[in-house]
Amino acid sequence: MAVPCVRVPTSRGEETRSALAKRDLLDREREITAEGGALYIPVTDPAAVPDDFEVVDYDAPQRETQTSPADLLGFEPSYERLGDIVILDEDDDERARRIADAVVESDLRAATVVNRASKVRGELRVRDWDVLAGESTETVHREYGYEFALDIAEVYFSPRLATERHRVIEQVGAEERAVDMFAGVGPFAVPMAGRGAAVVGCDLNPAAVEYLRENARRNGVDERLTAIHGDVRALPDEHGYADWADRLVMNLPHSADDFLDTAVALAGEECVLHYYDIQHEDDPFGPGERAIRAAAEAAEPTYDVAVETERVVRSYAPHEYNVCLDVRLTAR
Question: Boundaries of each SAM-dependent methyltransferase TRM5/TYW2-type domain copy (predicted)?
Answer without folding.
Answer: 79-331
